[in-house]
Design goal:
The protein has a single domain, classed as Metallo-beta-lactamase, Chain A (4-Layer Sandwich), CATH 3.60.15. Helices cover about 25% and strands about 25% of the residues. Strands 6-5-4-3-2-1-14 form a 7-stranded mixed beta sheet. A 7-stranded mixed beta sheet has the order 7-8-9-10-11-12-13. Helix 8 links the parallel strand 12 and strand 13. Helix 7 crosses helix 8. The protein is globular and about 55 Å long. The mean pLDDT is about 95.
Length: about 260
Amino acid sequence: MRVKVLGCSGGIGGTLRTTSFLIDEDILMDAGTGVGDLTIEQFLKINHIFITHSHLDHVACIPLLADSVLGFRDTPITLYATAETWAILKEHLFNWKIWPDFTVIPSEEHPLLVWHEIRLGETVKLGERSFTPLPANHVVPTVGFHLEGPTASMVFTADTTTCDALWPEVNRIANLKYLIIETAFSNEEIELAKVSKHLCPAMLIEELDKLEHSPLPRIYITHLKPGEGEVIMREVDRDAYRFNARPLYNSHIFEL
């Protein structure tokens, strides 16, 4: 199971791309602006998209990808999302006002996009690859994901603030190799982090202290806001040095 980072920034500009991961050749986990760097040929191989939540930086390329491959596919693309997230996308995105409703075109009988409901703790298996939604605490309904391949596991927290319900689930994963966790703001912006339900380094440390793994998984920081990455990582390096957390980058590849 190969996981490639297509985008991991909290914004855009220059080489910055928002959250998206390509898993092997046929799965996306979130579909932010990083998906736009794929070729049409790569688009056509995408059969499954796992969605953490409805915010634009995580779903922006789903409608554009759908439009690009319409007419070139005989089978639908399956979108995996909670009922709450799917309701938001149907009402506010695939509504014929913001974008055509690809769940009924080219026809209701053979739509391009189909929805598969996911629930916390219920695993979706695609061959030897497993995806289990995990608790998150954000301003809209959100889940993280536990990804498990033939040899190891990864946890992606998605956008979240303090979330006590997450860590018992993480601590139960015996083969956890990688933890990707967000930290969107610097400590100076802790109040903004709290109201927008993100993390800053001080809050990150409190969350990582809940990890019970020994040795610790390799920890990567994602969703850094543009222009603030160096400040945030200096604070992480200074105060959370024992966790050896590193910034996530585009094109980073993980093997599970």
